[in-house]
Design goal:
The protein is α/β, with parallel strands linked by helices. It is built from 13 helices and twelve strands.
Length: about 325
Amino acid sequence: MNNIEFLRVFQLLSDKLKTLSEQEIKTLSETAFYQNLWFSEKSIRSSIAGIIQLLEPTYLEKWLNNYSFETINPKKIGVIMAGNIPFVGFHDAICVICSGHNLFVKLSSNDKILPTYILDLLTKIEPKLKEKIIFTEKFNEIDALIATGSNNSARYFEYYFSKIPRIIRKSRTSLAILDGNETGLELEKLGKDIFTYFGHGCRNVSSILVPRGYSFNLFFESMMPFGNEMLNNNKYCNNYDYHKAIYLMNVDTFLDNNFLMIRESDQIYSPISVVHFHYYDNQNDILDYINSNKEKIQCIVSKNGDNQTQIKFGETQKPSIFDYADGIDVMKFLMNL
């Protein structure tokens, strides 16, 4: 298939996703939630909206035109998908499909419903792809690997697949930089970066840099619209209760609004229901913190995000087709196999 054919196929997929009935979405959401209690209907809707955005025709065409696979010798590409948010591996899948290679998908046990549903839709739209997309539990003689997982699983992948070309992603998270002059609306947008998918994604903000002496009053006030959704999820509440109990027993200092805790820490990773904060005195402090954590950061957000080094509040869960996880160009990797 050439780029024109791929554009047609993915336009049809996008159109189908845009026109899913309320009943279809509810059925899909209920099935996914039954398998993974983190996958709320809102999370499924957010994931589908993200996939539609990735398939925006103008950007998709421009993206495809950056690469040439006319002389490709199709290889078996194994893709190990994470299960932290619904179909987080769609970008990897579309890269392998558009490159002309054969996609061997190992789904996470936590996320089998949405990937299966969408890739099945794709093969119904274009039957030629059915033999190019294979679901598997075990990789046999794959030629290259793209894997996403935890730091522990990454070590296993590096060892087990050491003899083949590979992209192996470890745990990452996202950072917000506040200057103390943000409006309530801007901070509410930041709330989307914190709470979408209950904070499970690498593009979710888990740590914020604030000027010394920063008051969290407006911050907490701006987080309130997210309270009902968080409190209505039992797993989120269990995390909140557990970590609050730990902090109280350890006599740790933290701020709390009954569904989110803010705690001072140099650690960029934070547990679900907790956001870490770190004070800075000047721009050099910010740069030092970023540089010391650069291998752990997926996104940096601020109110003046420039879309190059930083993203505007509320935009972390809206990556474009040009945004590669960890900054690694998967299409170039596939071209050079």
